[in-house]
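User: tokens in, sequence out, please.
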């Protein structure tokens, strides 16, 4: 079955907001860490950090982790205490909720196609 241009355009319009959000959140994160250095070893901070290395304070308010000495800072580049980290159970539960949200989105897209677009007329 050939894919029509209308289908491609509808898919692009549905995906576009997600793409714009990801693009701008990435650039916001890069701009926030520009010119900031680690308070302990003066290494420039990098914008991206593995999610499992973030503590609760960084999940709530944001922050950076030094790639050289592994200390944690807040968004202003000030040192914060390496406080409690989210447990494995919380991380798995949030992944599960994100996956369920993803499934719900896919189901709504399928319903949209079946009842509004009507591919077979
Ligand atoms: Zn450092």
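Assistant: Sequence out:
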């Amino acid at each position: 079955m050939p894919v029509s241009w209308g289908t491609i355009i509808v898919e692009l319009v549905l995906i576009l907001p997600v793409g714009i959000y990801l693009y701008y959140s990435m650039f916001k994160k890069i701009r926030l860490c520009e010119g900031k250095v680690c308070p302990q070893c003066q290494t420039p901070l990098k914008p991206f950090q593995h999610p499992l290395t973030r503590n609760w304070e960084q999940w709530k308010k944001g922050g950076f982790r030094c790639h050289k000495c592994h200390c944690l800072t807040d968004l202003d580049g000030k040192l914060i205490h390496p406080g409690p980290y989210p447990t494995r159970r919380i991380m798995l539960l949030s992944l599960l909720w994100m996956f369920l949200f993803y499934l719900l989105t896919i189901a709504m897209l399928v319903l949209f196609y079946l009842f509004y677009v009507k591919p077979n007329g």
